[in-house]
């Protein structure tokens, strides 16, 4: 992609097909350029601070490659109390995460950052309650392949829907991009939106 000085150009700094689909559903025009950053949490870093920091770092890395454009980035993590559950390395770790989540309520945090003429970061929390899962359910799902690239080892939008007893808050936030808050963020920056004349 070549440089573009157009202030209405939006770049999504993400390799996640979920974020791409969520944004595309709203007919918002954007290009994609993934940021590869170190996602190791700092010692004692709380979930809210962690996802905000990672979203900001992703947005800044891609903004430096696209001067003049607006860059949107996000990061999602699952938090069970003070414990952060990122993407499981394998089916065994997925199973361990599902065992922790079974029969309990956890928080899903997504940090969203917009970088361009100015910078803004927000963090959205959704509470998700899991059913009490049987060993057979956990083992089948852990080995289904679906948990591997998902924070907390499940996809609410996929087969993982059967694990969930209830959701309190934004569902798109769980999938990786809180649509209501993201639209408000783009609106504040003056980006053109399909329902608003630019
Ligand atoms: C809990 C949950 C997470 N997820 C996904 C959303 C995110 O893509 C992923 C968390 O990983 P992230 O590190 O937030 O995102 P990513 O590595 O997929 O993409 P990028 O950093 O390039 O933007 O987990 C679901 O799809 N469904 C769910 O129910």
UniProtKB/TrEMBL annotation:
<dbReference type="InterPro" id="IPR003697">
    <property type="entry name" value="Maf-like"/>
</dbReference>
<comment type="similarity">
    <text>Belongs to the Maf family. YhdE subfamily.</text>
</comment>
<keyword id="KW-0378">Hydrolase</keyword>
<dbReference type="Pfam" id="PF02545">
    <property type="entry name" value="Maf"/>
</dbReference>
<keyword id="KW-0546">Nucleotide metabolism</keyword>
<protein>
    <recommendedName>
        <fullName>dTTP/UTP pyrophosphatase</fullName>
        <ecNumber>3.6.1.9</ecNumber>
    </recommendedName>
</protein>
<feature type="active site" description="Proton acceptor">
    <location>
        <position position="75"/>
    </location>
</feature>
<comment type="function">
    <text>Nucleoside triphosphate pyrophosphatase that hydrolyzes dTTP and UTP. May have a dual role in cell division arrest and in preventing the incorporation of modified nucleotides into cellular nucleic acids.</text>
</comment>
<feature type="site" description="Important for substrate specificity">
    <location>
        <position position="76"/>
    </location>
</feature>
<dbReference type="InterPro" id="IPR029001">
    <property type="entry name" value="ITPase-like_fam"/>
</dbReference>
<keyword id="KW-0963">Cytoplasm</keyword>
<feature type="site" description="Important for substrate specificity">
    <location>
        <position position="157"/>
    </location>
</feature>
<feature type="site" description="Important for substrate specificity">
    <location>
        <position position="18"/>
    </location>
</feature>
